[in-house]
Amino acid sequence: MFVSESSGVLYVVATPIGNLADMVPRAVETLQSVDLIACEDTRYSSRLLEHFRIETPTTAYHDHSDDRRVQKLIERLQAGQNLALISDAGTPLVSDPGFKLVRAVRDAGFKMVPIPGACAFVAALSVAGLPSDKFTFEGFLPPKRGARQAALADIANDTRTLVFYEAPHRILDTLQDVVEVMGSEREVVMAREITKTFETLLSGTAEELLEIVAGDSNQRRGEIVLLLRGADKKPASTLDAEAERTMTILMAELPLKQASTLAAQITGLKKKVLYQWALEQKK
What we know:
alpha/beta; Methyltransferase, Cobalt-precorrin-4 Transmethylase, Domain 2; 3 domains; five-stranded parallel sheet; five-stranded mixed sheet; 11 helices
């Protein structure tokens, strides 16, 4: 579509993840100057806006908003108005709403400008002491145990640092799953309440962190970033033909853990060797 030079601009603005002093001046100036701010939650954002004396009108937007809400925002851009998009905290679209709107604005040909700032997983990665030259951000793991274990199994052999967000009421179960799927010795870092009063950084083996979190209910509160050291590079596991055949049959009917346990009883091989081979087949 043809977009006039007088059309508006969508600014995607990062906001603090806890400490309001982390709000960058450019973000304040942008939010003060635009015609409308699209917020994940207008009530939550009102505290931030009041603190910085930002009187710009707001409207609610999240990725469950219907297409009419998106279209109304695009019509404002067509009319020459400048808009800003913010989430409750941090950088929009990083496990936060905004994808539908940004995609629609891009497809419609309007200009978009990012205003960078706080991002919880980037902040956690910077102090984790884990390799950061290569990493993968996985967002939130599935809430149900079976799906979560399957997701962990799929990336168990990834040699990059693995980064997740996790809800406080699930952190204990997730650490237990890390122990079961990736092993008790996998190095783990847990960053909690970054930039806030009770900011905590814990590191150790998966088993050590599981014990700490299980024994301290305070570690099961607030916003959590979980970081796992990537897998060591190892030569591919090999099995004899009969063991491979046994595992292939069992994997078709059972979860990997059960298949490995049963195959170990049948073949006499170590369960860990069979489980590692099974993971490599899924890569």
